[in-house]
Design brief:
The complex is a heterodimer of chains A (333) and B (274).
Chain A: H1 2-30, H2 36-48, H3 54-67, H4 74-87, H5 102-137, H6 142-154, H7 159-173, H8 190-227, H9 230-238, H10 242-280, H11 285-295, H12 298-326, H13 328-332
Chain B: H1 5-23, H2 59-95, H3 97-112, H4 115-125, H5 132-143, H6 145-159, H7 162-169, H8 174-210, H9 221-230, H10 239-273
Helix pairs in contact in B: 1-2, 1-10, 2-3, 2-5, 2-6, 2-8, 2-9, 2-10, 3-6, 5-8, 6-8, 7-8, 8-9, 8-10, 9-10
The chains are: A mainly alpha (333), B mainly alpha (274).
């Protein structure tokens, strides 16, 4: 019963994230003081030297409205948008590379983002939590204080600063890694795999370092608190080896809040990943978004955003689904 | 009241940066973002503590104005974000029931939604005419959720305490209980939340500015990096142009973070003793 209740609440939360995310993306741009279509028309007029006839302009305006999905009342637009974009995943053709569909671009970019994010989140979580566990469990030693200082210094540094520092140091001054990503298309050979790792190293490093801070500090606090729990004291008095206490008694219990926290912070990590991709020209969703902005490709832009919201919500949902496997209390009761 | 090391360090850093960036602009009548005010690419000297960049701006003055603008934006937005989170968090924790569930669902959604892509769209659509007011409003929309969650859990645990019952039985209204009984206990978390919110706002604006989607004509900690990257500061050896804002940003964020955790620690020990 407990498990069913838990699942139901997670599914509701999943749908709520999707609904609110999609609704905000629809309404915020429409509540803006400026009209993108009038701006575009003014720009075209300037380029054409005011030679467009008023009739042609009206036709253009109607066409642009259709293209941007701005026909009819706000409510009609909204339901059209939900129906087309959310239910059918149809983002239309790319406006810049017409008529290639937007979905095609997204499917090429998505694996890059997911791969980069997946690998770096796992590494940052595992190593960061391990360091945090050590720092919290041996909180009296000087070694632990050093580890904590590392966490305190790393945590507030934003993604773009980490990315810039890594680029400056490793790609520009030492030239160990490339300044921006260049991976030739082709079959997946050993050479290509090593090229991918070589090119992904710095972006991944950025995300891992950024993830360290939070994991270290939060795990340290949790491990420190768990260490004083009566069952841990009992285990110590019973003569359980410290190492076993640390891994089986403290770590397993302190992990649970860390997993919940990970599910909540996926969105923030994703934000950082987008920015990192843009700064490293890494061929994922972030760079695609940048391209879409640069070329004014409205459909591509909306496509990438909806896919972003879907990926983040789904990732958090999957973590929520894994949670009962790790926390027996939800399963058994 | 004994200040801990983190709080001391944090406050010192913040004081230096804040006082510096708010008073120094009175000593100059130069518009820092105007190009060609000085000779280009001058090394650091008495007149130009950090040198000038390749479009003839004084890096030091640009940095001072950037810091000030970023701080103003951060504090202003955080103020409103904290008020919203306070109202929603307190009411949701105290009233409970269906209201609480709905508010928490919305709050968790706002935490989970990746705000950056949405901000990117907005930034694109209003490119060139992004007013700081508009940007600020949007940042408030994405900035209140974390604090609302903390405040709510505080209110939830306070609701069951004896003194709340006493207040209720002696005839206080819901609003009075929230304001006079619960708020004083939530206040310390609010300070921490406020500082964290400043971090979030400055960071988000800077991140947008770095890729050119905020109003890059206004000097902020992000726009200075945008211009440095735009003019390839690294390739032409203008290290100071990019290193100076990077160091300042790290210092500011470290100062804010140390203050917030230090304050949290201080408050936790005080609660422990009383």
């Amino acid at each position: 019963m407990q498990l069913l209740q838990y699942l139901a609440s997670r599914i509701v939360a999943y749908l709520a994230v999707l609904f609110i995310g999609v609704t905000i993306t629809f309404f915020l741009p429409r509540l803006m003081p400026s009209d993108p279509i009038e701006g575009y028309i003014a720009q075209m007029q300037n380029q054409a030297g005011q030679t467009i006839t008023p009739e042609a302009m009206d036709a253009l305006r109607i066409q642009l409205r259709r293209l941007y999905g701005l026909e009819g009342s706000l409510v009609e637009q909204y339901f059209n948008y939900i129906n087309k974009v959310v239910l059918q995943f149809d983002f239309g053709p790319s406006l810049y590379s017409y008529p290639r569909p937007v979905a095609e671009f997204i499917w090429t970019a998505l694996p890059w983002t997911l791969g980069l994010l997946g690998v770096s989140i796992v590494i940052a979580w595992v190593i960061g939590n391990f360091i945090g566990l050590l720092a919290g469990f041996f909180h009296n030693s000087r070694f632990a204080t050093t580890l904590e200082v590392v966490g305190v210094v790393l945590y507030p540094i934003p993604y773009y600063i980490l990315a810039l520092v890594l680029i400056l140091q490793f790609a520009y001054i030492w030239q160990w890694f490339p300044l921006s990503t260049t991976i030739r298309p082709g079959p997946l050979t050993w050479d290509k795999v090593s090229a991918i790792i070589y090119n992904s190293f710095l972006p991944a490093m950025t995300l891992i370092l950024a993830g360290f801070g939070w994991n270290i500090l939060s795990m340290k606090a949790l491990a420190f608190a768990t260490k004083e729990e009566p069952y841990v004291v009992f285990a110590r008095l019973k003569g359980v080896k410290p190492r076993r206490i640390m891994t089986r008694y403290v770590f397993r219990n302190a992990t649970l809040p860390q997993i919940t926290a990970l599910a909540l912070s996926i969105g923030t990590i994703f934000n950082g990943a987008l920015l990192t991709e843009i700064l490293f020209s890494y061929p994922g969703l972030g760079l695609l978004m940048r391209t879409a902005i640069g070329s004014g490709d409205f459909n591509l832009m909306y496509g990438t955003i909806i896919v972003s919201i879907f990926s983040v919500a789904t990732a958090a949902f999957v973590i929520d689904l894994i949670y009962p496997l790790i926390d027996p209390r939800i399963r058994l009761r | 009241m004994k200040l801990n090391l983190r709080l001391k360090l944090g406050i010192v850093i913040l004081l230096i940066l804040t006082i510096g960036s708010f008073t120094l602009p009175f000593f100059t009548d130069v518009n820092p973002s105007e190009q060609g005010t000085y000779f280009r690419n001058m090394p650091a000297s008495r007149n130009h503590p950090l040198g000038t960049n390749s479009i003839g701006q004084d890096i030091f003055w640009y940095l001072v104005f950037s810091l000030r603008n970023s701080l103003v934006l951060g504090v202003g937005v955080s103020f409103f974000a904290v008020i919203i989170s306070l109202l929603l968090g307190l009411s949701s924790g105290y009233i409970g029931g269906v209201y609480d569930r709905i508010i928490m669902l919305v709050t968790d959604s706002f935490i989970a939604i990746p705000s950056f892509p949405i901000l990117i769209v907005l930034g694109t659509l209003i490119r060139g005419q992004t007013s700081f007011w508009y940007l600020g409003t949007v940042l408030v929309i994405f900035g209140w959720a974390w604090n609302a969650r903390t405040v709510r859990s505080m209110a939830l645990s306070l609701r069951e305490r004896e003194f709340i019952n006493t207040a209720r039985f002696s005839g206080s209204s819901t609003m009075e209980i929230i304001l006079y009984e619960i708020f004083p206990h939530v206040y310390a978390y609010l300070v921490v939340g406020f500082i964290n919110s400043i971090l979030f706002v400055i960071n988000t604006e800077a991140a947008l500015a770095v890729i050119g989607l905020s109003n890059v004509e206004v000097p902020t900690l992000g726009s200075i990096i945008f211009w440095a990257l735009n003019y390839n500061a690294m390739f032409i050896g203008q290290y100071m142009w990019i290193v100076a804002p990077v160091v300042t940003t790290v210092l500011l964020f470290l100062g804010l973070f140390l203050t917030s955790t230090g304050y949290n620690q201080l408050f936790a020990t005080r609660r422990g003793h009383s």
